[in-house]
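Hey, I'm writing a tutorial for new members on how sequence and structure tokens pair up, and I'd like a real worked example in the thread rather than a made-up one. If someone can provide the structure for the chain below, I'll link this post from the tutorial.
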Amino acid sequence: MKITPSSRILKMLGEIEFDEWQCIAELVDNAFDDFTEIRKSGVPWAGGFKVSVSLPSLGAKSHEAKVVIQDTGRGMSYEELELAVRAGWSNNDRFDKLGLFGMGFNVSTARLGRRTRVLTTRAGDPHWIGVEIDLDRIKDDFEAEDIIEPKADPNEHGTKIEISRLHAERADWLRRNAANLRTTLGRTYSYILENKGYELWVGGQKVKPRRHCRWGDDRYVIYGSGASSEKIPAYIEIDERFEPAEACADCGNWQVPNKGKCEQCDGERLTLRERRIHGWLGIQRHLHKREYGIDFLRNGRKILQWDKRLFEWSNPNDPQGLVDIEYPVEMAHQGGRIIGEIHLDHVPVTYQKNAFEYGDRSWRAAVDYLRGPGPLQPDKAKRLGYLENPSPLAKLFKGYRRNDAGRRCLVPGDGTRPIHDTTRRWADLFHRGDAEYQSDQLWWDAVVAHDAQGKKAKLDIAQNNSPIQADEAAVLDALGVTPNGAQPPASKPEDGDVSGSRDGNPPATEKETTQDRLARYRADSRPMPELSRDFGSPRVGFLHVETKLLETGLLVDDQGSPTPVLVVQGAGGKATAFIDGNHEIFAKLGVEPVDLLLVELATILKVKAETGLTHAQLVADLRAGCLPDHALKADVVAGQARELLTDLRVRMASRVDVDPARAYQYLSPDELTATENEMIANGQVGLTGKLGETSEFLLYAPPLFTVKLLESWPEAFMDGNVFVGPYASVSSMSARRLSLAKVVGYLTDIATLVSFNAADPGPQQLLRTRLSIKLLSDEIASET
């Protein structure tokens, strides 16, 4: 079989940069294109649509290692095969196929190995026909060797590509990365695998489509308040059609219809085709440092994954200016959660299929539609003279740029703060296919529970600090301190309450069964997602624990004795843990619920594993291995401190918008320089010349400046504006000072750790800061 061009060029194709997964994907593309043609024909197809990829085994010798890609497609005739393996030839149209370039087969096979055998057969053919391309033997005047092999079943059909004499480094990568290859191909072809019914197998295991862990279609947030409030969904469907245009089948150029010839190559093979942007933009259920952004697809294959170009903006009036990264802004160290899948079948891509032609006007039109021509940030847009950005991405940015726990931002929390580490762990279980984590219900329950717990805590504080109690003694009492500095005595049950129950209900006349009691506990408790996970270690096994906080009634064990923690084992390595948050060991003695939960779990795991490990050893293992987010480590506590401080900066900035110049005057020269440097480092160069005109400078000011601002201008932030504590609402100066000092003390601990996070603060300082984070969170007023 004659193949052209010269053998020297054919060999050099293997030097073109293609990653190993891209080489495999090129050959999968051809098979999927064939499947698509079969489906378009409407002919019933026996044997299904399956592509199998065999990789070299770990124990295979170098000369025996090979890669085999086999499909159940139509197969080819001799003439079709001759054209298919000829370098530079392609029968694919440029617009409906995955295999867009004629060199794809030759580049991918030459990149992997020195010898390629292609075998193909059609249903009803008497045998397999094929060709062997040996790059070490082929010459310019050498015809590749034809192959004929017997066929076991006349109804067999498909094509098989066998690549051997693999290049050593690529063979080694393929040996070690079967799982990574499945994951990568699962992401690349997720839309096709999920929506077209095609199967892809690698190393004997089926490739699963990597779906996005996004919020459901019915979830939303309310942005703003009153008449100006706006409902912003967490899922926005995209379907925008542009005017049809003529596409050239020879060079791929798009142009205005009815010109007769292609403006670029003078070709006459022009067809009128639709130009459409479709897909969706939405919100991920968790924050991630890398895995956020937009996937862009062409004919179902992902060309760009987690792409963040739509989050960038350059001022067209300042071509030499820096590119602004507009998202994420708040808590950027935690990553982002805006995601999407956008199909751009009409936009040309590069030959490696890892980028679009970004200079093409079709790409630019898609970007303008999805994110708008102006900034995403409303304040920046207003400063630069842009109208409000109405684009789909700008809408999501407006509703979800912040990551505060609760319904307002659709972020799960534990009643005090967001539980980002926990939701990332849940997302891992979603991707593993765990049925419990496929819907967003668990995430939603944590959102609702956070608001319920936080509302109760803040309501208690607000009621205790009510402005009606204007006298100093009442305020001191609300702050938990008596006039002489002593703690108030604990309340005692009324003399008439002899029921033994905390809520004063009379004892039940009928004996409650164990099942009834547990059912009551479940009904009277709320989830604690921060303590719900797999607990254990490889030494003793694991127990999947769902932890719940009992909100009413008394928690008792099977003997009827009160207990702070009760763990009930279920089937399949699962258990439910109930925690009585009102038990005196938590309410009065300062023990954390997690500590006693670990003790109970260590006892259960010790018995199940019949291990000689002590309870102390097991508790240590559980805490270290299963609760990294509870670790007393500088990076963990500092991360929590940065999250809370970022939220406070945003809220404080909104309160000083009425007079930003007053807040600006409190900056010292050193603080001003630090603020400017931080703005430049974050790409906010344009703001440095307008400091003091808006409150945005506060987002970049040194952490300890927030403490100074609070002390200097307390009436802007107290009395429920940012913090629930009273200030202007009480007349006594001593009460004001005490109320303010309480918040300032917590905030100082947090800002200090964030300011000096390079130093090792030591365990005692970390413990103090972590407690300040919790206490200050309780002092923050609910947003209206």
